[in-house]
Write a structure and sequence with these properties.
This protein is an all-alpha fold. Helices cover 76% and strands 0% of the residues. It is built from 25 helices and no strands. The two termini are 17 Å apart.
């Protein structure tokens, strides 16, 4: 690394091959389907609530925590695999899994089965973004990465919008044709919708498999040879992040590490029990089923807090192991205040954004007299348009400001945190259907503006070989803070207030001051961190000799 250098002018202006744009379009399509399968739960929520006899807190848990914990935890070893194996193959396998599990969701007859199926969706979808972020960083030069990542991220909003439109049409038509369920399997409309959006992913997986794998790091002048043992790191990560393998992994690091690991696990579960008692959440469906399976009476811990406790414990295990096994990567991620402030700051944006996007359809269905098809068309179309425009314009704004100041991208994240708040308040208090729809577009666009900037910022703070792991860490904040807590918080508050989703969604605004402090800190820390990536990696023990690019 003694030969570190900055990006030369000819590198800055290097052309982008047409194949890169073609491949990016396929990745966008994958992400569209990713969020159709994930977000369709929103338009189906009220029907699931009625058929399965669950409350808003469970619906928030199902969409948020049940998905988020496994998405985040498996994203860590899969992020490592994305750094060492064929990323195209990894995405193909993941797409096949999550599409199949989405279809399985359609055959669920109870809450426990539906929860397990959604967990499977989370595991499969965990392959997508670590692979895609790493591929995009090898298909596009540094000057266009925020834009390319923003275009990829637009699939989030397109898929979210399309899911509402498709889901609404399927449910209305199915229930009209089969009011008592179809004569063969007795499926309700919400079940048919899951199956209808899950099966096409199996066909898309065949197309994805045809993409060409780029040479890792070549576009930055840092071609990296393929890892001869790509699954070794993946298996090691399983032992550092997936319980109960984590106990074995900790024991391998010594008696002291094992004792600390056990203490953290027990403390997390005790905290989950007390939070359950404090909030009156009650024993969870999965916890009760586990007790029946092993023949033991389980403690009063809700699925929400038990899974979150496992999630945060697993993150502790992973970070502890990473510190010992790959200190340079640890130093540039967990050991970097700039990196942590950036990803956690965006996590607070996601906390509010996920809540509003998920609960928008159930709220509108309860408050306004509209059919699911009409609701899905207008709310889904507006959300897709707003999110798409917001993420694209936000990405371009982030790239433009970055050329002027190293902290330019952080300003865009801060804008995405603060600007939606007054519009969201009016949206969830108005009695006008038309105004609700207009504000849905506005809020979606403003919140979406932060995503490309946050993704590019996290990639710029690490070396090329660390990008998959950095992406997994970035999504930990997005999922464990945003998706794992936001929708459940709104659903829990709604359940306490007799189904008042207005109070539920607006209750998530309390996190704004925390996000503000984190992002203001990032504004001060990121410029210096961007300029010293190579130096900090070298100081942390990164092998000397490889050329590194310090501007990205």
């Amino acid at each position: 690394m003694s030969e570190a250098k900055t990006v030369e002018p000819e590198q800055v202006e290097q052309p982008v091959p047409a194949y890169s744009w073609y491949a990016l379009s396929v990745l966008v399509l994958i992400y569209v389907l990713n969020f159709i399968d994930r977000q369709i739960l929103s338009i189906l929520a009220n029907d699931i609530k009625a058929d399965l006899g669950v409350d808003d807190a469970y619906l928030g848990f199902l969409y948020g925590t049940a998905f988020a914990i496994f998405y985040a935890l498996f994203g860590i070893p899969l992020g490592k695999l994305a750094d060492s194996w064929k990323r195209v193959r990894l995405m193909t396998l993941g797409l096949t899994l999550w599409s199949a599990m989405t279809a399985v969701s359609g055959f669920a007859k109870d809450a426990a089965t539906l929860t397990v199926a959604r967990i499977g969706v989370g595991v499969g979808e965990a392959t997508a973004s670590p692979s895609a972020y790493s591929l995009i960083s090898d298909w596009f030069p540094a000057r266009l990465r925020a834009t390319a990542l923003a275009i990829y991220s637009s699939g989030l909003y397109i898929g979210g919008g399309v899911s509402l439109a498709i889901g609404g049409l399927i449910v209305d038509n199915w229930n009209r044709t089969f009011p008592d369920g179809d004569p063969f399997l007795g499926l309700a409309g919400w079940q048919a919708a899951f199956i209808a959006v899950g099966l096409p992913g199996l066909l898309l997986a065949v197309w994805v498999f045809t993409l060409r794998e780029p040479v890792r790091g070549a576009i930055d002048g840092l071609p990296t040879e393929e890892d001869p043992h790509p699954f070794r790191g993946f298996i090691q990560e399983l032992y550092t992040v997936i319980p109960p393998f984590t106990f074995v992994g900790a024991a391998q690091r010594g008696l002291g590490s094992f004792a600390i690991n056990i203490a953290v696990f027990l403390a997390a579960q005790v905290a989950a029990h007390f939070i359950t008692v404090w909030l009156g959440s009650g024993q969870g469906i999965i916890i009760a089923a586990l007790g029946n399976l092993i023949g033991l009476e389980m403690p009063a811990i809700s699925d929400q807090w038990a899974l979150l406790a496992i999630g945060y414990y697993a993150v502790f295990c992973w970070a502890s192991a990473l510190r010992i096994r790959d200190y340079p990567t640890f130093a540039l991620t967990w050991g970097s205040p700039a990196f942590l402030c950036t990803i956690l700051g965006y996590g607070t944006v996601a906390f509010m954004a996920y809540s509003a996007s998920y609960w928008g359809a159930p709220y509108a269905e309860r408050v306004f007299d509209v059919s699911k098809a009409e609701l899905g068309f207008w709310l889904g179309g507006g959300g897709a348009a707003g999110g798409f425009l917001g993420v694209i314009l936000g990405g371009r704004m982030a790239d433009s400001l970055y050329l002027k100041t190293q902290g330019g991208r952080i300003w865009v994240i801060l804008f995405g945190l603060l600007s939606p708040i007054p519009f969201a308040y009016v949206q969830y208090t108005t009695e006008s259907w038309a105004l609700f729809l207009v504000l849905n577009v506005v809020v979606g666009a403003l919140a979406a503006s932060a995503l490309g900037a946050a993704a590019a910022s996290s990639q710029a703070l690490v070396l090329p070989r660390m990008r998959g792991t950095a992406t997994a860490t970035f999504f930990l904040a997005t999922t464990l803070v945003g998706l794992g807590l936001g929708p459940y918080t709104a659903g829990y508050v709604s359940a306490l207030n007799d189904g008042d989703l207005s109070a539920g969604v607006l209750s998530t605004l309390w996190i704004t001051p925390i996000g503000f402090v984190l992002l203001v800190s990032a504004l001060k820390l990121v410029p210096k961190a961007n300029k010293t990536v190579v130096e900090r990696a070298t100081a942390a023990g990164e092998p000397v000799g490889a050329k590194q690019v310090t501007a990205s």
